[in-house]
Write a structure and sequence with these properties.
Radius of gyration: 26 Å
Strand content: 5-15%
Largest sheet: 5 strands, mixed
Number of helices: 10
Oligomer: single chain
Order of helices and strands: HHHEEHEHHHHHEEH
Strand order of the largest sheet: 1-3-2-4-5
């Protein structure tokens, strides 16, 4: 017989337990002596074939990724209406587009700043994308102040003003304090006093609170996070990858 034949059989049984949800094999039915022998054979085989550990880790990671993807699909389906049509988040791109891209973002997030031109590139190359921006300030008081300023500008001066403020804050180099934000408003021709008077209003607070609650329900803890169609994408994604996903979504619908 080949060396490690009995050990290989024991290891194969152990790996089968890892690679399938249910098996007829029941280790609890073994005697103490049988369990000890089984464990010894498995240990000897794994020590002789340590690459099995990497195979098992890869298998575990695949399962975790599949489970996370399935969970994310359910989260998107359960919250799709609020994601795409909450009634207060700014909507850009093509409002009648056939695919909606939702972005949870923070103005102080470096990857959000990297993502901004990629999103703009996608919207420019594909005129049938609807964009929804979710203000999700999670990186401290400066982030909260920036989001309050942007939302208040939308309340005071409308969607066009929000877009101007949003783009300016994404590229903002200064610390977003009261003085800097007043200068920003003045530079954009907006009423700084009216915006600041609105920033701490219950209406602005409610928007940010509702978005945070939605993010918590969807286990979103980082920015940027995207929902493209029905797929949750956690993290930065370049335009070319989003374009591929958009094409796949349309193919699935046709």
């Amino acid at each position: 017989m080949k060396p490690f034949t009995r050990a290989a059989a024991a290891a194969a049984t152990a790996l089968a337990l890892l690679s399938a949800p249910a098996q007829a094999f029941d280790i609890s039915s073994m005697t103490d002596a049988e369990r000890e022998a089984f464990g010894k054979e498995v240990r000897e085989y794994i020590l002789a074939n340590p690459e099995l550990i990497l195979e098992a880790v890869d298998l575990l990671e695949q399962r975790q990724q599949q489970a996370e993807a399935a969970r994310d699909d359910v989260l998107v389906a359960d919250n799709l209406e609020e994601l795409q049509n909450d009634g207060y988040s700014w909507v850009g791109g093509n409002p009648d587009g056939d695919i909606t891209l939702v972005e949870f973002m923070d103005y102080r997030c470096g990857y959000c700043r990297r993502a901004a031109p990629e999103v703009a590139k996608l919207l420019e190359s594909d005129g049938n994308i609807r964009l929804v921006i979710k203000e999700f300030p999670i990186l401290g008081e400066a982030s909260v102040l920036s989001s309050r300023f942007a939302v208040a500008a939308k309340h005071v001066a409308g969607d066009d003003a929000y877009k101007q403020v949003h783009d300016a804050l994404i590229d903002f180099g200064a610390e977003p304090n009261d003085v800097a934000l007043r200068r920003l408003a003045d530079g954009l021709g907006l009423d700084a006093e009216a915006i600041f008077a609105r920033m701490d209003s219950e209406e602005v607070t409610a928007e940010l609170r509702q978005t945070r609650a939605l993010a918590q329900r969807m286990a979103i803890s980082g920015t940027p996070t995207f929902v493209l169609g029905n797929e949750l994408l956690r993290g930065y994604l370049p335009a070319d990858q989003m374009e591929i996903m958009v094409a796949e979504i349309r193919d699935q619908r046709s």
